[in-house]
């Protein structure tokens, strides 16, 4: 089956699209990536999205406009992926949509909201669309995140020691795959969420992120601010757990700065970068991680990656490219796999990874232009992921 995966994370700067041929061979899921591209959000849409995200107040009108405009943007990205990556031939689109709220109270996830109407994607491509992938896990008592744990586990299972996969988006999440116990997955805390908010604020909107970590690299970590930030109760909660920009946002940072002497902008950014490195490293040490494979936008920040290495001097840190999963496209590929599992009647979650009572089949299906024909259900769930030997092709994004 040829599947297109669509993803926009908590950094909400672009839509990532990845295509792959996916097959099941007994208990092995075989993945042949066909390429990936990244489509930036139109500036007006991104501005509206940023203005609507918590803790800002919003209206039903704004949410409806966003739902439609994000759906149309995802549809345009899917149409490009279909033409440029798939030669206009695919079977399924899987859309994560754009998370705008993850409702957590006392560590329990009560609900989640991803915008981007799948009907726009189905209309643009003519293909069936799997969407709303988090809700089934939440209804089963899970966190609904991080859903990439299933794919991480398939990719890492059987490696020696205790391998782990780290994704550095707006929020950082970790999947730990021990040899002799169940996998564990959780959000470790902010990655780019506070950094991007700080850069936008400190630059008066002139910049959206710390390019190549230059400003953090020029700054000095402020120990007092770091202690305040690390005192957050979230870090002491047991896994599985999840969080988002509902918690880690600009007012949160400004509140942490209150009462401290004025800090240079670059020192604030250096401290926030160190915060991510420390919280990731603390989580890795707590679970005995012996090797770490990283993906996501944060891997393009050399200062952040250097700091993670400093905090974990005895743990090799490599990009997921070494596993055959392009670090810039891993999440989009992961959602393509989750949608593939869904249409075959297979669960896409691990209860030990989300805390759910059972493993849930994920998502809702929006038919394409033709009759909806699902594959015959499969009863044997995959245990390992195998990447095909064919070379990937990476068209310009």
Automatic annotation (TrEMBL):
One Gene Ontology term of the molecular function aspect: kinase activity
Alphabetically sorted, this entry's keywords are:
ATP-binding, Carbohydrate metabolism, Kinase, Nucleotide-binding, Transferase
State the protein's name: Anhydro-N-acetylmuramic acid kinase
Q: What residues bind ATP, as annotated?
A: 9-16
Mention one GO biological process in which this protein takes part, according to its record.
peptidoglycan turnover
**Superkingdom of origin organism:** Bacteria
Give the catalytic activity: 1,6-anhydro-N-acetyl-beta-muramate + ATP + H2O = N-acetyl-D-muramate 6-phosphate + ADP + H(+)
Q: In UniProt terms, what function does this protein have?
A: Catalyzes the specific phosphorylation of 1,6-anhydro-N-acetylmuramic acid (anhMurNAc) with the simultaneous cleavage of the 1,6-anhydro ring, generating MurNAc-6-P. Is required for the utilization of anhMurNAc either imported from the medium or derived from its own cell wall murein, and thus plays a role in cell wall recycling.
Per the similarity annotation, which family is this? Answer: Belongs to the anhydro-N-acetylmuramic acid kinase family.
Q: Return the EC number.
A: 2.7.1.170
For this protein, the record's CDD domains field holds: ASKHA_NBD_ANMK (cd24050)
User: Part of which pathway?
Assistant: Cell wall biogenesis; peptidoglycan recycling; Amino-sugar metabolism; 1,6-anhydro-N-acetylmuramate degradation
Query: What gene codes for this chain?
Result: anmK
Its taxonomic path starts at: Bacteria, Bacillati, Actinomycetota, Actinomycetes, Mycobacteriales
Q: Which InterPro entries match?
A: Anhydro_N_Ac-Mur_kinase (IPR005338), ATPase_NBD (IPR043129)
